[in-house]
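Hey,

Quick one before I head out. I ran the complex with magnesium ion overnight. Inputs first:
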Amino acid sequence: MKFGGTSVADLDRIRNVARHVKREVDAGHQVAVIVSAMAGATNQLVEWCRAAATLHDAREYDAVVASGEQVTAGLLAIVLQSVGVTARSWQGWQIPILTTNAHGGARIDAIDGAELIRRFAERGEVAVIAGFQGLHKDTRRVTTLGRGGSDTSAVAIAAAVAADRCDIYTDVDGVYTSDPRVVPRARRLDRISYEEMLEFASLGAKVLQVRSVELGMVHNVRIFVRSSFEKPEDIDPHDAPPGTLICSEEEIVEQHVVTGIAFSKDEAQISIRRVEDKPGVAAAIFGPLAEANINVDMIVQNVSGDGKTTDLTFTVPAPDFQRANDVLARSKGSIGYARLDGATDIAKVSVIGIGMRSHVGVAARAFRALADRGINIRAITTSEIKFSLLIDAAYTELAVRTLHSLYGLDK
Ligand code: ADP
Ligand code: ASP
Ligand code: MG
């Protein structure tokens, strides 16, 4: 059972979580609980690091931001004990959850779940595990798994103890055809395939961290997204509650061409104007960006205004925008261009569905519908099961709702 930030936002909510846990324990299930920091806590910790020094040691950043989860794990263990459930808290390093040393975005390497299983079997002790944190296997420093990383902790623990299910309790009762905060007519999906969920998560639906879905897919963990806000007493632990199961494609009966619409405003656009159109230019541009660890996403090349040279437009994550500009300015000599243009008020809207593998013309309908609304498309990318469109940020909501209706997803 994993509980996110809003689900543990204060002591009342933590008491509510304890009742969910007690219900499952009383029903005879063996459970491990993974908790996030209380809502807003991690943001505050990140902000303190930034205020302390804009350029700071990533290892110390992790020492600071990992602390939010420590508090919740301890509090939940206290509350569980007070309602008669045997429980103890675990920090990432105590289990240990061993990770790479990519501080701020480490990947889990190994978890030994044997001790957790033994303690539950011998004394019915519920493990309350601080999500988001790990330990670098060589340096023994505390690491964190990247924002939203408690989902990944939960799926990794589920795999390590061979859990029947990994329930992700959050502030929505499942995965919807689009973010229900933006599309009031979004519908809850009963099931979604790992592959689609992976696209959903990487294209902006923050309901699950991307890495948690990858892990679930590799280890075949049944991930179930459900609400923590339902009254624990109203739930029969032997009934199927409302929620969304992330599972393999074969288990999905109902097939749609389009499964959902995701969007992200966390991108920035860079255009390099009047580059000489000759072999090696793309390498001169994207090589230095890759070396700087900047992830380039959509790429469009077209003829410049002068008809002789070429313009290259691409997107980078918004937090890397300034750095990307600096890298390109430094490489101006080797690339050879007239001017750099940038835009941060843009959004990427993506249409996802495994049905696209076998249907043609799905994207063409979107182009028409957006044109009818006067929405200009700045760039397009496609893959087998999705396509993404880059538009002005001001039109995000309109575009998402338009596409949601267009593909028959409205409830
Ligand atoms: P937690 O704190 O429990 O980890 P998050 O805030 O990380 O929760 O994720 C849940 C949020 O994800 C929801 O409140 C919702 O606004 C957002 N979200 C975005 N896209 C979707 C989607 N397609 N289905 C459900 N929720 C979505
Ligand atoms: N507390 C961390 C964050 O806010 C991890 C998580 O909630 O999943 O990113
Ligand atoms: Mg989350």
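The two ends are 29 Å apart (CA to CA).

Talk tomorrow,
K.
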